[in-house]
Amino acid sequence: MQRNTLAVLRVALFNAGLFTLPVQAQDIPLLDEIVVTATRIPTSLDRIDRDVTVIKREEIEAAGQTTLVELLRGTPGIEINQIGGAGAASSVFLRGANAQHTLVLVDGVRMNSPTLGIARLEHLPVQLIERIEVVRGPMSHLYGSDAIGGVIQIFTRKGEGKPRLSGALGLGAYDRKEADIALTGAGERWRYAWAAGISDQAGFSAKKQPAYQDKDGYRNEHLSFNLEFDATSAHQLGLHGMHSKGESQFDDGATAFDSRANARTGNLGVNLKSTLSADWASELRADFAHEKVETQGYFDASPWGPGSTYASRIDMDQWQYAWQLDGRTSLGAVQALLERLEWDVGGDVGYTVDRRTRNAVLLGWRRDVGAHGFQASLRRDDDSQFGAHDTGMASYALAFSPHWRGSIAYATAFRAPSFDDLYWPGAGNPALQPERGRNLEAGLRYTATGRQFGAFVYRNKVQDLIQWAPTGVGGNWQPSNIARADMRGLTLSWQQTLGNYGLRASLDLQDPEDASTGKQLILRSRQHANLGVDYAAGGWNWAADWLLQGERYNDAANTVRLSGYGLLHLSAARELSRDWSLLARLENALDQDYERSSGYNTPGRNLFVSLRYQPK
Fold first, then answer.
1. What pLDDT digit, counting tens, does each position of 174-188 carry?
2. What's the rounded Cα separation, in Å, for the pair 52 and 223?
3. Which CATH number fits domain 5-613: 2.40.170.20, 1.10.3720.10, 3.90.1150.10, 3.30.465.10?
4. What is the bridge-based pairing of β-strands 477-498 and 519-520?
5. For residue 56, what are the CA distances in angstroms to 31, 36, 265, 404, 603?
6. What is the per-residue pLDDT across 141-154, written as a single tens digit (0 to 9) for each?
């Protein structure tokens, strides 16, 4: 996107005043230069002190990837584990932290399952996504529980400009078929967006064992909408929602057991953004999130005894209410937040406790004095199960020049145990306490037209780590606060535009260690990297990405080793006309044989081709 110099100057001058009003109130046209997640308010990227990656809609379309798991796997600081193909359970390890230590938001709504503790990323389709913001490092001081490793926030499609109807059709290996459609636009006071789609594939056998050699397919149906209405010049009403229904097969062996899972996840919310004065703005919001998972299957006669069928259902409801106030004073920018969270779980699992509430208050402050930046925040979460828990952050930044900025920050974080940790029948441990983290990091960032560079070194210590282990009684497992984790590392990232070429690279050197045993944390490597190049000319766009993953271990004792691997992905896109384009993506172009988890297959070389209609 060509930069609008006047608009950039307006954004920079406004941020120099230490505070930014809501995007709509400022009429900022360069949304790709504005980050929300790192500060909870729209802030210019060059004023952000945290380690941040932004993935925009045009990058998502150009990548040609059809799942969120695929899209995130090359992001700095992120490692992905998935036990099978599309729709299979997936985990995100951010800076070496546990999967439960990454908080996932969709349009500001928490999507981490209150039972599992992780978000079901495998059921969040990229067709609904406008942009993604990844903030690495603890963020409990802004978002509360779960954000020990960082935050991934997904923004669904938004409306702007004249009405546009767009869509795409795709075909690929493993009998993959996809279709999506979107309508976006804006009027004098309205902005609207609606998107929907469907995908289906026969898949491949998730398990490697001969008894399980069948196709584990996946089908997903999804939709989202966003409405914004300028009630007055100072008040903006918003309504948003999304829904995804995923039907997946797993471990579908003819001689072992036949299992299928139907997962429905979604949210619905309303908000009111108000410009109270030239210095003050507020936002009121109420959001509802729902998740329903139904599993059914058949156990064969061996080794579980007589053959039998089984079925289970888990329902989860979440209500989220918040009021946020942002302002600027003579002492600097200030922020206050009041938030209430409520969870209900149901179904046929039989949790002894099925409801939890949490009230939170947040106070934040920021002040820039010349080239020096100071920031601090404190949050208290009062949980109905665990009582009050305080987290905070303090940072200092120095702008060496208009392009270079260094920073140092200290932050604390926590994660409350999930309902499964506490109350799973026959295994949960109601005596569990929250996990607690302490993080120290220093960073150096360079930003300029066509060029970005970042270097962040960190050490994140987690105490009272919840670990499931055998009890020695009947083969049962139970969780307890017995472990400690020490995660040290360095993340380097670089992007450069040279004429028609775009270059990008990232390298993570890390030491994710179980401090109790000195062993490497499960499924996390000591190094991983990504190299990419793209070229655009004459209506063609070519791209190549090389993902490098170091060796990992599949068990806590570090006896089951998973070899490192490198995956090459190639893509080509051709403009057929002003509004039509054709894209082909060859995944795992070298047909590398590799493992993410021991005993599970991964996709071989596979091709996906899509035809897209996108009015200019």
1. 999 999 999 999 999
2. 28
3. 2.40.170.20
4. unpaired
5. 9, 13, 23, 23, 26
6. 999 999 999 999 99
